[in-house]
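Researcher: Let's do a round of design. I'm pasting the structure tokens now; please hold your answer until I've finished.
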């Protein structure tokens, strides 16, 4: 992911001006990386090292999503709708 792409994602999902690490931003960044790796794996089916990394990213996103759901269900619902994720 390029620096410009990452900055755009942070800009879109941040909660306030100096926010770079809220759960919303982290989930959005992980989702972008997961989508990128998914496309890579469609072309390179035998790349098991990338597949393992993808599974680790999915687990990290799942944990952050669970945290956000526990803390603020409305923000969670809004975020998954904006990202196009299913519950």
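Researcher: That's everything. Go ahead.
Model: Designed sequence:
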């Amino acid at each position: 992911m390029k620096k410009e792409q990452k900055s755009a994602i942070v800009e879109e999902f941040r909660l306030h001006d100096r926010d770079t690490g809220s759960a919303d931003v982290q989930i959005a960044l992980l989702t972008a990386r997961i989508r990128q790796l998914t496309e890579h794996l469609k072309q390179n089916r035998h790349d098991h090292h990338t597949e393992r990394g993808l599974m680790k990213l999915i687990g990290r996103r799942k944990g952050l999503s669970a945290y956000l759901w526990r803390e603020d269900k409305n923000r969670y619902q809004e975020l998954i709708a904006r990202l196009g994720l299913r519950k």
